[in-house]
């Protein structure tokens, strides 16, 4: 039976989708009026998997580069509440998850901050993962609130998010850790640390997008 959180997120998403239907909209990728996502921008949402390792050695596979149309569409999903865009983004994320999620693996997400959840009323990453076909298991929680990551360099980001997460027990299981965007990997590293401390056999990270190298120090809220 779905949890209360899952049901609440589904209700909020349905309400936002209804408002999107009745209110005038523009393409999230290019601004073309009277269409939520035009065919040209939809065609730009094609997976181009990118692999990297964080400073702590965590393997991260990203579906898209966080620039151009993908970046604009993801920002609109997160900041304007247009949850209908998850239908276009989820297959891209799902194509990467399909190659990573093993038979016995647990899929979980990096949790949004309490402030972000109160502002949005839903969790974008959880929404994307569910629409991708893998209901996430809520393993992680924050034990303190870090500073806003914007404007912080690589070392400051790591210090800022160090020790933020704890995890429910997950002994002997492989875990696929999902987030929306990876920048330096500091948040993903701390989440992976918490999962391993809780008994995870192995951890691999998947993100919808990765920032280009020249943006790694730009710092945007909710990027990891």
Would you write up a description of this structure?
The protein is globular. It has helices at residues 4-22, 39-43, 68-79, 86-100, 114-120, 124-132, 154-161, 186-197; strands at residues 50-53, 59-65, 106-109, 140-142, 165-167, 174-182, 202-210. Residues 214-223 have low confidence and may be disordered. It is of the alpha/beta class and 224 residues long. It contains eight helices and seven strands; from the N terminus they run H-H-E-E-H-H-E-H-H-E-H-E-E-H-E. Helix 4 packs across helix 6. A five-stranded mixed β-sheet has the order 1-2-7-6-3, with helices on both faces. A two-stranded antiparallel ribbon has the order 4-5. The protein has a single domain (4-215), classed as Rossmann fold.
State the secondary-structure class.
alpha/beta
Q: Please give the largest β-sheet.
A: 5 strands, mixed
The overall pLDDT, averaged over residues, is 85
Task: Count helical runs.
Answer: 8
Cα(first) to Cα(last) distance is 31 Å
Question: Spans with pLDDT under 50 lasting ≥5 residues?
Answer: 214-223
Count of the domains: 1
Q: Give the radius of gyration.
A: 17 Å
In the CATH hierarchy, what is the class? Alpha Beta
Strand and helix order:
HHEEHHEHHEHEEHE
Number of E-type strands: 7
């Amino acid at each position: 039976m779905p949890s209360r959180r899952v049901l609440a997120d589904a209700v909020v998403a349905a309400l936002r989708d209804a408002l999107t239907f009745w209110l005038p909209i523009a393409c999230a990728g290019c601004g073309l009026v009277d269409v939520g996502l035009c065919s040209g921008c939809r065609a730009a949402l094609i997976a181009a998997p990118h692999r990297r390792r964080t400073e702590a050695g965590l393997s991260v596979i990203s579906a898209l580069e966080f620039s151009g149309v993908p970046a604009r569409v993801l920002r609109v999903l997160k900041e304007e509440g247009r949850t209908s865009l998850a239908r276009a983004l989820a297959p891209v994320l799902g194509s990467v998850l399909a190659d990573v999620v093993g038979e016995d693996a647990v899929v979980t997400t990096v949790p949004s901050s309490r402030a972000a959840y109160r502002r949005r009323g839903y969790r974008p990453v959880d929404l994307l993962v569910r629409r991708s076909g893998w209901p996430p298991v809520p393993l992680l929680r924050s034990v303190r609130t870090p500073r806003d990551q914007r404007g912080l360099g690589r070392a400051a980001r790591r210090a800022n998010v160090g020790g933020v997460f704890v995890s429910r027990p997950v002994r002997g299981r492989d875990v696929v850790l999902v987030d929306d965007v990876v920048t330096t990997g500091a948040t993903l590293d701390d989440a992976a640390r918490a999962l391993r401390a809780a008994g995870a056999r192995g951890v691999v990270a998947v993100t919808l997008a990765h920032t280009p190298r020249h943006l790694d120090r730009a710092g945007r809220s909710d990027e990891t």
